[in-house]
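Ops channel
N.P.: pipeline sanity check, posting one input/output pair.
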């Protein structure tokens, strides 16, 4: 029984090391930080990103997305 528990412990430890070393659990989440342009924003996501970069700089802005029913240009940091 002790050998089985020891084997499981080693397996779990190796799995944790694998996950940590490959950054499998690393989040790619971005945080909403600003709005840009008129409402409704009539351009594309690329236009929105250009608006965000021009107004707030890059970094901190990493993307711009037109979202919502009212078509707001949201800048993400």
């Amino acid at each position: 029984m002790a050998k089985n528990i020891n084997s499981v412990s080693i397996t779990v430890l190796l799995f944790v090391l694998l996950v940590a070393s490959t950054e499998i659990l690393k989040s790619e989440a971005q945080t909403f930080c600003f709005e840009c342009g008129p409402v409704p924003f009539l351009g594309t996501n690329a236009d929105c990103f250009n608006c965000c970069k021009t107004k707030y700089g890059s970094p901190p802005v990493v993307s711009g997305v037109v979202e919502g029913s009212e078509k707001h240009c949201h800048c993400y940091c």
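N.P.: looks fine end to end. Helices lie at 2-22, 45-56.
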